[in-house]
Amino acid sequence: MSSNQLQVTVNGTQLTMTRQFNAPREKVFRAHSSCEHLKNWWGPREWPLTYCKIDFRPGGQYHYCMTGPDGTEAWGLSVYKEIKAPELIVYEDAFSDKDGNRNTSLPTTTVRTEFTEENGKTIIRSVANYASPEALQQVIDMGMEAGMAETLDRLEEYVAKIQ
Amino acid sequence: MHPSGCIYIYLQPNGCIFMRRDVFQGIADPTRRAILGKLAKEKLNLTTLTDNFDISRQSVTKHIKILSECGLVIIEKQGRDRYISARPEKLSEVAKWINQYRSFFAESYDRLDDYLKTME
């Protein structure tokens, strides 16, 4: 089941996000393929894309910067691993600096984004394999067990929301 | 680089040396997660903690050291004993990171939805 709301599920090793769009697949895919399109939607509203450079092909890079309301810059660098228009994009996302050097001390995420079309609508299914695959389940388990700190309560609320 | 520990020392291209505690590294090991699970319930001394595991006191000590470097546990000396307690607030860094990731896509996809209406 998909809807126009983002659905998130966690299976212990992966974070899966599903969302439906009222547009044909080719168009949804195209919106991912160039700066001209991405600057219109990539990132939270308050963090617009202020720098963008894309080489949209396997092995190519997406180097970007989002600037927050207080001027804080968030630089990212993705490397495309696999591209199959208009159905699949696999990339590895990392934090970087403005010169495109990856920050290796922060987690990288491999994201596999699949586009499927049904009755003129497109479903995006994005599977993120995050850096410490087993960590999340453990965090959840501990939260249930302990219930001691406010942060764990918040974690539990969050887990309840995403399941 | 410290291959199995928690503190990373790395050299930036501009020549600056940075040190960073990585909570992800702390929970990457199943034994360390089990130790944290035990400590989540109560503060334990090293002997009691070791009795819960089929590994040597030396191994437990090694894991505790890494957890401590990550800021995930606190070691307190009480007489001849050492008591270890968990600092679960550090784990929220993991939850926060996942949450940020989720919010990022929720909002981006809402914007994509709007943008698709105007796109040719």
Question: What is the averaged pLDDT score of chain B?
Answer: 78
The total of beta strands of chain A comes to 8
pLDDT < 50 stretches of chain B? none
From the N-terminal CA to the C-terminal CA of chain B, the straight-line distance is: 50 Å
- Mean pLDDT across all amino acids of chain A: 77
> By helix and strand content of chain A, what is the structural category?
alpha+beta
What is the CATH level 1 assignment of the domain at 24-131 in chain A? Alpha Beta
Largest beta-sheet characterization of chain A: 8 strands, antiparallel
CATH topology of the domain at 24-131 in chain A: Alpha-D-Glucose-1,6-Bisphosphate, Chain A, domain 4
Strand tally of chain B: 5
Shape by Cα distribution of chain B: rod-shaped
Write down the Rg of chain B. Answer: 20 Å
Extract low-pLDDT stretches of chain A.
138-160
Task: Please provide a brief summary of the model.
Helices cover 21% and strands 39% of the residues of chain A.
Structure description:
The complex is a heterodimer of chains A (163) and B (120). With 163 residues, chain A is α+β, with helices and mostly antiparallel strands. In chain A, 21% of the residues lie in helices and 39% in strands. Chain A contains four helices and eight strands; from the N terminus they run ββααββββββαα. In chain A, strands 1-2-8-7-6-5-4-3 form an eight-stranded antiparallel sheet. In chain A, a hairpin with a 3-residue loop joins strand 1 and strand 2. In chain A, helix 3 packs across helix 4. The longest helix of chain A is centred in the last third of the chain and has 13 residues. About 14% of the residues of chain A have low confidence. Chain B has a domain of 81 residues: Arc Repressor Mutant, subunit A. In chain B, 52% of the residues lie in helices and 20% in strands. Chain B is built from five helices and five strands; from the N terminus they run E-E-H-H-E-H-H-E-E-H. Chain B has a three-stranded antiparallel sheet with strand order 3-5-4. Chain B has a two-stranded antiparallel ribbon with strand order 1-2. Chain B starts with 6 loop residues before the first strand and ends with a helix. The mean pLDDT of chain B is 78. At the A-B interface, strand 2, helix 1, strand 8, helix 3 and helix 4 of A face helix 2 and helix 5 of B.
